[in-house]
Amino acid sequence: MDVKYINPFLIATQKVFKTMFNIDISMTKPLLKQERTTSGDITGIMGLSGDKKGAVAVSFSKKGVFFIYNALMGDGCNELGPEVIDAIGELTNIISGQARKELERVGLNLKAAIPIVIKGDKLETSFITKLPIVSLPFSFPVGNGDKETMYVDFSFE
Amino acid sequence: MKVLVVDDFATMRKIVKNVLKQINIDNVMEAENGKQALNLLKSEKIDLIISDWIMPEMTGIEFLKVCKSDETIKNIPFIMVTAEAQKDSVVEAIKSGVDNYIVKPFTPEKLRETIERAKAKVSAQGG
Question: pTM of the prediction?
Fold first, then answer.
């Protein structure tokens, strides 16, 4: 996995959070995950194809996703219902789209499938690739001085 | 102005409606796909169409082509909303006759500008 592919996901995530939520999201230390599992309570996943094949996943904790949903829709929520699932699918789609635009700049052309959303932490997923998963943790404020972490995980080969 | 928002995701329709509200556009109708939208266009006087790109049954591009080939609705400004920020997608939309496109995520101001440009383009073409 070439580290030049991390920046596109960083730029994309920061742009999406700034534009949609007016949040300056910050990335903490990237990790290489050997285990092929989801990184949060709810995860949007999109398969990738084109110059390479793989997948990108966007994961939130419950607290994080409730905050994001409220920021996005102006409605409160306290369960991972259909509207929240829709919202995470769409957010994954938007982050993926922006990341693929940035990846195009470094010479990588990828297409994405329609997102799917799964509920549950540490669920086994297939990223199609044999390479480790690059996991980018992003920290964002959720009020009352608290912070939550969102993960953008990706792998392609 | 009456706007028709077309997207298979209810959440995305709501997001677009919220953004339109922030630029003082409150008269908004919704459709889940191109077919539903075409039915609405037969009975409602719509001033602007904002459509998603990827939808089941009828894609945004297919819906766009039908609109632009129908004399009764071809002059309604048509804006494509897409997460596909890549050049190929943009070129395809332009070749298919889209009046403007906007890439997610977008601010209310960006949507306002996009709407104004789409209206100006149709107006310049005699619509």
Answer: 0.87
